[in-house]
Design goal:
homodimer; 3 domains; Aldehyde Ferredoxin Oxidoreductase Protein, subunit A, domain 2; Aldehyde Ferredoxin Oxidoreductase,  A, domain 1; six-stranded mixed sheet; Aldehyde Ferredoxin Oxidoreductase Protein, subunit A, domain 3; 41% helix; alpha+beta
Chain lengths: 630, 630
């Protein structure tokens, strides 16, 4: 018997593009209780509904956009979009996340999740105004960049509407195409743009006028007040607020885990321009997502060089790296311009830069020449060439058509040993931390259900020494540490939280446990779901979500062999201090990790026992039936 | 004793950037009666207030933005911006006009005109909300393109605000820089962007909540109803509505007065792409200005080639020519992209394209080589090079720094006989009609107070055979015809009307006289100014405005010698049918024109008698005192 779910919008909207229907069902109480929301909802819905072997670019794939009971409330920073789908890049489960105002607006329109399925006959966009849902012709904006699409669709819906859209890259099924919001807070990774593109869906546009109803508003407000106080006293608040993730680029370079030149990791020429005092000169405006006082977004203005005139969101830490350190480009104007182009054409900044760096290394090694590159000289550090390649990737033009497939598939096309230089895990390009210099963090790259992602197991203990310092180079205990971080992140992402914000709050409390206790309380105050009160339950939800995602991939045929990192990471000693000489001890770390996960060590597959402990016996049953249980 | 001025906003706003003041004075009754508004106000205010010899880029120059009693009413198409200033390109009087929603918004805020003077110490923008006027810091948007500026300034003022702004080109004092509205309806010509740039003024942002009060609403509404009926039955309505000025590009090419290759006028290769059926495929949206049912603006989408992704206002007939026929570029994608870049960087599309065509001819003739062009090969028809040159002009980069000065000054820098290829009159680049193929129209190029403009004397008799056909190649009677057209345009521009709209209405009536009668009636119905009732009075106002503008230039030292057209136009026979063999008989046409104008034939200076007949005896007095009267 379902109790009333306070603070949830109460409905899940299902859009079937093939049959041109929009249906609404009540958000099931059990779904809410067991998976909280956001990433949790996505994992469960994809497990339930996606047939194994489904073509990621076929009508059978689904895109779940889901939100949390805290989305759209006054709780700080819980207003992110979580987008879950089967990835055309990795072939497995994917969760991608972005910010802005879209999530809160969907909640205001009355939905905890939107499930998009099927395939429209012709270019379409969805216009949601509260209870009204229309599928509209998008032929006129098909092919257009994000800025043009946003302008056109706002004009014909509502000037205050919010939207999630794709650029030309998504339409062209570029496997590293992203989803983009009207304010460029992109759910970037995993090829979500290509999934919408394959469905002929240009955008989801939404306007909502409802507001969440809280279970215990007084208690809730107290907890928000506490949160604001903790944010303010947090040592990370000012750094995020003043310069966003740009504040750490130079620091992380000096800490030695920041990769350069496609993970060759020689010293980066001209790295001094990464210093905060250089970067901050470009900032003209601080911008934030809905309901977040951190305002980590910085708008940059370019006034010099061929790219002068631009004002756009600055490249985040990872994009700074992908368009900077790993391509060797230290021309800040070119980096910012590349970032803007990627946003407007709808390409994942991380994978785009990483793929360009991969191509630059192939060019350096003579594996590709100007014959294959449409005459471009792909030299390290050439920002203009990088800018040109982004456009080519997005439009699948010449060499761009090869690189649009991501490093692994591009390497297959190119041959001649190119695959050795594809720096990826599960075909997702590795981001801006070298696994050799941060072992638990690297272990998460290897074991992440979505491939080489920095978000799934961003190891604050190793990277920031926070809430307590852990030696990043040590191997001992890293299985447990990685599990803990992965589960915590899965838990707070099921609550729709922002990873930056969680960092700020945890730094304020100097304790992860306190953060989770607070999270349990506020989820309870919002929803009235008794289970949420106990933070141990949230840890369990995190582990449940993580295992369910894993099971999704197992059902697709993933085993231990997919938990992999490139030869360079495993065998080539890291050249820079302080990680000099380090390699990544993959097998040892995996054994440890699987053991603490309670998974079969040989295959990396969750055991029945573990799944049952997590309330996932139906998952064990299905895997067993498919002969895929350990 | 001033009667109440109905339908006028009632105030003139004066912004002194040097002293950081904003003052409001009542709109003088005599000014309204004698000059109606818009272009008329600008001519009078500049005559009264600008000292001869004032530096166009000095604080002593003024920018008058003025509107009409019909602006912001339900009368169709009277909602244009008229911007008057001393031009940094021509050194003389200038009037530039654009559309959009800015003019109506200023009227709603309560102003018939805004006079901008002085020079701000640092980058500034003006924020007007009804009676409240603020001068605000614009450092954060200084250097930014128009799209970024619009986004930033709307965010910090009002999402529904309207604005007139400049791009990087205006800031860099590019002499062909334009003013741009938030919706890209640019007052393009004459370097208005550089005037604001020289004043450190990035934008005028406005939001208004008032509405004009009509003298006789019933009569007024009847006249608007009549106007709508005439529009609808007009043979030009559908052409303007369906494809805007793009509908005539191919037609005008075939009529033979459409210049090619910097007025060399050989047949244009690949001209078939100018056909309406090709162009209309690019249109994704019809857009219009405030209060205009014609909606002549077309948004184009590009889906092919390196510029794919763009949606932007299509290139108008003139821009189509400047980025197309005169540069020989028939790559429509490059033309549309060039047009967008010019809008976003804030460069006049006509002068930019014409200056690039000039450079291409210099390159063809070997007068400039790759040494002077930063390695670019300026070959006719190369759209990619054209696109690159626009950016360079706007940013004053390399060869762009030379071309940013316009053809005449660029020719002075380049030397080696380059001036022969500068196709201009009074240093304003000639637009998309060849004077040899339309003599009265060409005579207006030569005699226009703002230099080689198509708008000042757009000769519908010659170009469209409308309202009656006149042989465009004939010389006889063209002085009178040109005078009539110039005066009529000055009259309806004093009323703030749009030239396209006047064409539609006149085609509907099949009579210019009927149009002017209707205009007199509606001005009277709106304002209650008795004089306006009589259309003869409006013709007089037109001539008054025209003579006052002329007097402004005379005061600056202009005489008959400035009423000039290039040697190529005067001496080289036109090569294409039907104007084959024609040259432009400048002296003969000038003699005729001055005679019918009642000006001194030798000097082209208005006589005292003529000025007195027009109520401009104070002008005659001042010119006489300066020793400049004929």
């Amino acid at each position: 018997m379902a109790s009333k779910l306070h603070s949830y919008a109460g409905k899940i909207l299902r859009i079937d593009l093939t049959h041109k229907t929009a249906t609404k069902v009540d958000t099931p109480y059990e779904l809410a209780r067991d998976f909280v929301g956001a990433r949790g909802f996505g994992a469960k819905i994809l497990w339930d509904e996606l047939k194994p072997g489904a073509d990621p670019l076929g009508p059978e794939n689904k895109m779940v956009l889901s939100f949390s009971p805290l989305t759209g409330t006054s709780a700080q920073s819980f207003h992110k979009i979580y987008a879950m789908f089967k990835s055309p890049l990795t072939g497995g489960y994917f969760r991608s996340t972005g910010g802005g105002f879209f999530a809160a607006e969907v909640k205001f329109a009355g939905y905890d999740a939107i499930v998009i399925e099927g395939r429209a006959e012709k270019p379409t966009y969805v216009w949601i105004y509260d209870n009204t849902v229309e599928l509209r012709d998008a032929s006129h904006v098909w092919g257009s960049t994000v800025d043009a699409t946003v302008e056109m669709l706002k004009e014909e819906t509502d000037r205050d509407a919010r939207m999630l859209t794709i650029g030309p890259a998504g339409e062209r099924l570029v496997r590293i195409a992203c989803l983009v919001t009207d304010d460029y807070r992109t759910p970037g990774r995993g090829g979500g743009g290509a999934v919408l593109g394959s469905k002929n869906l240009k955008a989801v546009v939404v306007r909502g006028t409802k507001r969440p109803e809280l279970f215990n508003p007084e208690f809730f407000n107290e907890l928000v007040k506490e949160q604001v106080e903790v944010y303010k006293k947090s040592p990370l608040f000012e750094a995020f607020h003043s310069l966003g993730t740009n504040s750490i680029v130079y620091q992380f370079y000096t800490l030695g885990h920041h990769p350069t030149y496609n993970f060759k990791n020689t010293e980066l020429e001209n790295v001094e321009v990464w210093r905060p005092e250089v970067l901050e000169k470009y900032v003209v405006k601080h911008v934030g997502c809905f309901g977040c006082m951190i305002k980590c977004g910085k708008r940059w203005k370019l006034t010099k060089g061929p790219y002068a005139g631009l004002i756009h969101d600055f490249p985040e830490y990872e994009s700074h790296w992908s368009f900077g350190s790993t391509t060797g480009v230290t021309n800040l104007e070119a980096i910012a311009y590349a970032n803007m182009l990627a946003d407007k054409y709808g390409v994942d900044t991380i994978s785009a830069g990483a793929t360009i760096a991969f191509a630059m290394e192939l060019y350096e090694k003579g594996i590709i020449t100007e014959k294959e590159t449409d005459g471009l000289r792909l030299r390290w550090g050439d920002g203009d060439v990088m800018v040109e390649l982004i456009r080519k990737i997005a439009l699948r033009e010449g060499i761009g058509n090869v690189l649009a497939e991501g490093t692994v598939r591009a390497a297959e096309v190119i041959g001649r040993g190119a695959e050795k230089f594809a720096m990826h895990s599960k075909r997702l390009e590795l981001p801006a931390y070298d696994p050799r210099a941060a072992k638990a963090h690297g272990l998460s790259y290897a074991t992440s259900n979505i491939g080489g992602s920095h978000m799934i197991g961003w190891n604050k203990y190793e990277i920031l020494g926070m809430p307590e310092r852990v030696d990043p180079l040590a191997v001992e205990g890293k299985g447990l540490l990685n599990k803990k971080v992965q589960d915590q992140i899965a838990a707070f992402e099921a609550a729709g939280w922002c990873a930056f914000a969680e960092l700020v709050q945890t730094a304020g409390y100097e304790s992860v446990e306190k953060t989770m206790e607070w999270l349990g309380k506020i989820l309870y105050a919002a929803t009235g779901v008794e289970e949420f009160k106990d933070s141990n339950y949230l840890w369990l939800v995190g582990e449940r979500v993580y295992n369910l995602e894993r099971a999704f991939n197992v059902r697709e045929g993933f085993t231990r062999k997919e938990d992999w990192l490139p030869e360079r990471i495993q065998k080539v000693p890291f050249p820079r201090t302080p990680a000099k000489g380090q390699v990544f001890e993959l097998d040892k770390l995996l054994d440890d990790y699987y053991t603490v996960r309670g998974w079969d060590v040989k295959t990396g597959i969750p055991t029945r026992k573990r799944l049952e402990d997590l309330g996932l016996s139906y998952v064990a049953d299905e895997l067993q039936e498919a002969g895929k249980l350990a």
